[in-house]
Sequence to fold (191 residues):
Amino acid sequence: MTNNDNYAKKEIQSDDPIIQKCLDIIRNPKAWVSDLADAGYYTVHIGNKEYFTFNKICAFGLGTKYKITVNVQDYNFSGERPDLEDLHRLCVAKYKEQSQEREKNTLDFLNDVDKAQKANKNNGTATFVLLMGLAIAGIISPAVIRGIQEKKAQRVNKQVEAFEKTLPAEYLEQKHAVEHYRDSLMHVKGR
Fold:
């Protein structure tokens, strides 16, 4: 058994009942952690129920302060607290573990979408709606969606430029045809 195994088996206990209850909740295998705007403001859930929020603030010259919120009641602590450090460590670890899992699931999903696009090129609107729904649900970050949209717009713009070069000198008369071509490319899946 390594030192890490000993550390993992040795659970820090707290003499404060609120902190101990929070430690028990975060150690539950069904608990999951969200972080408000990736700012270190952790919310711990089991299922759909929110149990507590936890925030660690390191203020220069003022030391470390901790804030636990349970049922809209705030509990503030300060100073060196191994029990609260352990609570912070567990929140960070569980959040990072779940973030990596969500990222992997997102990449797997995008790979599946890419395969589906190659197999069926007539379903672009449904994929876009699905991606937007997932983005709204928080599974796919808006940055990923923007990246996909920007790449598609670049490909479409290149195709439109190539199309414009094929038009006769009366380009202004053909402007409507170019706009129609651009719109049709935006609605075709896999382009």
User: Anything to note?
Assistant: The longest strand covers residues 49-59. The chain is about 60% helix and 20% strand. Residues 64 and 80 are 7 Å apart (CA to CA).
